[in-house]
Inverse folding.
């Protein structure tokens, strides 16, 4: 067996060498990384600055460059910090204008979330919000067609429907078919409200 002290000496030498290397020049700016920065990466079209990265993180950054382009610096940093903890979402879609600047990022579906950053839950939530808005618009139009407030009860909707059909029916207008379009609108509106339990 070798003299133990010589083994310890050889172990001790290595970290010293590494530390000297790392102190030689700027450090990688990737959060948590202590490697020497050997590569420059442009921050993006809205910034003339550069990130200083080690080779590994310059590669990581370049791979995701299109994703980062147009993001504010702090958003990029937030993403990188997030990368260290397994991409738990730290911000949601629609909360920052910068993240929506790039076409596709603000859109729904897979394309809007190329890195799975927001998770299925957030995406489903966003989709549900849009669907809710579409339904609300349809409901509002249907109520308008019946000249009712959106707060009208199903009983009021029914009563108004019967009244409007009577008034716009060609039979009630001496066979005049000029009110037919309006009648069709009324019927469609009522059918819609009935189908969603509001008529
Ligand atoms: Zn690095």
């Amino acid at each position: 067996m070798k003299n133990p002290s010589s083994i310890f000496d050889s172990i001790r030498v290595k970290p010293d060498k590494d530390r000297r290397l790392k102190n030689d020049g700027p450090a990688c700016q990737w959060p948590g990384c202590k490697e020497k920065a050997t590569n420059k990466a442009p921050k993006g079209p809205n910034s003339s600055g550069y990130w200083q990265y080690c080779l590994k993180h310059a590669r990581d950054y370049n791979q995701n460059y299109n994703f980062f382009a147009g993001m504010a610096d702090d958003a990029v940093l937030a993403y990188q910090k997030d990368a260290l903890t397994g991409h738990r979402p730290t911000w949601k879609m629609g909360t920052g204008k910068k993240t929506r600047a790039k076409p596709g990022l603000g859109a729904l579906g897979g394309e809007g979330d190329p890195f799975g950053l927001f998770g299925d839950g957030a995406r489903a939530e966003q989709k549900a919000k849009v669907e809710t808005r579409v339904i609300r618009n349809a409901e509002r139009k249907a109520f308008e067609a019946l000249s009712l407030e959106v707060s009208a009860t199903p009983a009021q909707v029914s009563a108004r429907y019967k009244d409007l059909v009577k008034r716009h029916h060609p039979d009630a207008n001496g066979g005049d078919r000029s009110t037919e379009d309006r009648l069709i609108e009324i019927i469609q509106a009522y059918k819609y409200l009935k189908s969603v339990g509001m008529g």
